[in-house]
Structures are given as structure tokens and as C-alpha cells.
Inverse folding.
């Protein structure tokens, strides 16, 4: 379950730099709801899914040099602030730039004191 979530967030997720939120985007609300249920079983609460981008919205493809319209609505969920450290310790990212951004966010908030997958001096409560 953790490996699936880590892979999903590696491909569909990111850490917002300014607001320091962990987001995940997808056009499939059922898939996002499934991810939420898995996260909840690990004690990680999320918000959403909420609409992010409406279908029909134009976007410019730099590689093709063309403007297209989105075919589907895009939705997002995000990890609640109180569960960012838990997300980091239990799931995290394998993509280095995403992992570093999350670590920087946690260090700024003075939440990060141990490396991932290492026992914490203050263990999180089990759910």
C-alpha cells in the first residue's frame, strides 16, 4: 500500500513551494477517493477532491507550439497540514527534487528531526 501511494504521489503529486502543501492531481475522482481511503488507513488525512481545472480550458504545449483545450476536469486532494510529517515518514517521495522540497518545508516548520523510515524519538500514535 505504501509503495503504491509513494509511486502515485511521485507521478501525480507535488509539494507547493509557498503554501507548503502536498498536492495530488488527477482527472479520476474515484481514483483520488481510493487514494484518500488508503491514506486514511495510515492516519493521513486529506481534503477534497476539489476541482482544479475545468475541461475546455486552453493550455499551450511548448513542444508542439500549439494551444489545446483540456478534455476532462482535473481534481486535486492535499494532505492536511497536521499530517505532513506523518506522510513524509510513512510514504514520502522517491523523486529527489520532490523529497527535497518536502524536507525543506518540514525543516522550516521545525518538524523534521529524523531521516525518513527511521524511528522517531517521539513515535506517532498508531491508528
Amino acid at each position: 500500500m505504501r509503495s503504491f501511494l509513494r509511486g502515485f504521489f511521485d507521478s501525480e503529486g507535488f509539494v507547493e513551494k509557498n503554501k507548503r502543501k502536498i498536492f495530488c492531481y488527477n482527472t479520476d475522482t474515484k481514483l483520488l477517493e481510493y487514494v484518500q481511503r488508503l491514506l486514511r488507513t495510515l492516519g493521513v488525512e486529506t481534503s477534497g477532491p476539489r476541482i482544479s481545472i475545468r475541461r475546455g480550458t486552453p493550455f499551450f504545449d511548448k513542444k508542439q507550439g500549439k494551444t489545446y483545450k483540456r478534455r476532462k476536469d482535473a481534481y486535486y486532494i492535499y494532505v492536511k497540514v497536521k499530517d505532513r510529517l506523518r506522510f513524509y515518514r510513512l510514504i514520502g517521495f522517491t523523486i529527489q527534487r520532490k523529497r527535497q522540497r518536502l524536507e525543506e518545508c518540514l525543516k522550516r516548520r521545525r518538524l523534521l528531526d529524523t531521516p525518513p523510515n527511521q524511528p522517531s524519538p517521539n513515535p506517532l500514535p498508531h491508528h
Summary: The CA atoms of residues 17 and 101 lie 7 Å apart. Confidence is low (pLDDT under 50) at residues 119-123. The beta strands are 13-15, 22-26, 46-53, 58-61, 66-69, 74-79. The two ends are 16 Å apart (CA to CA).
